[in-house]
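Board notes (copied after class):
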Amino acid sequence: MELNIKYLLEQFLVDPKIIDNIGYFDLLSLLTPTSLHPGGLDITAKTIDIANLKYGDKVLEIGCGTGTTTTTLSMVGLNITVIEKNLNLLNSTQSYCKKHCNNLPRFILGDVCEIDNFNLNYNEFDAILFECVIGFIKNKKDIINNVKKYLKPYGKIIICDMHYNTIPNNDILEKISYAVDWRFEVLYENDWLNLFNEYKKVYWEKFELVQSTITNINDIKNLLKFQYPEIDFNDYFCDKINEKMNSYKKLFNSNKLYCNGHIGIFS
C-alpha cells in the first residue's frame, strides 16, 4: 500500500498513535537517504571495488532500500536495473535518484520470485547484487539459481548481508519479525556458504557490525525536509517519527550483537 505523507499528517492530527503502526520499511521510505544495511556505504564501496565492477557494467540490484546503494552504483557509471517489491521504498529510491543521478536506473516494481515475468534478457548482466535481501526470500537456493541465468557467462553474484554467530533470545526475533513483517530464518555463516555451494567462491569476508547511531528530532526534520521540501513538519510529528525510528534502531542494534556482516562474491 502506498504511503501518502499528506494523508499521514492529516491522520496524525486525529490520532498521533498512527505512527506506532508504521512498519519499519514504510517508515524508512519517509527518511531517504537513511540506510541501515550492514557496514553502510563504506562496505558498498568496498564491495564494488572487490567485485571489479567497471564503468558501463550492467548490474541487477535485488531490493533497493531507500536508494543509497542504487545512487552510489549509478554515480560511478554502472547501469542499474532495480527490482523492489515495496512500493514506498521504490518511490523513495526513484525520487532520490532523480536528484543525484544523470543516468537513471531502470525500476521494476515486483518480487524477485517473479523475475521471469519482467522482460529481462538471459545473459544480460555483469553482476547481480543482493544487499540485505536474501533473508526475505523463500526457497532461497531456487531463486538464486533462477536469477543466475540473467548473468553473463562470467558474471558475478554479489551479496552483502549478515549472519548469526549465536541465536538471540526469542523476544528479539519476534520483535524483528513483526517490525519487518517477515518470519526470519536464522542463518549461520555455513548456511550462507551452503546456499552457494554449487558456485565458485571468488571472495568471502566477514566484518564487525557497527551500531546504528541514534537520531534526534533535528536529524528527522532534515531528512523529511530533504524528501518533502514543500511541507512544513511540526515538532510533535517529527518527535514521534524520531521516537519510532529509534525504537527500531535499538532493536536492530541489540540483534547485531549476535551477528557478523559478510561480503560474498560468487560466479
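Comment from the instructor: The beta strands are 58-62, 79-84, 106-109, 125-131, 151-164, 201-207, 259-266. The CA atoms of residues 61 and 129 lie 5 Å apart.
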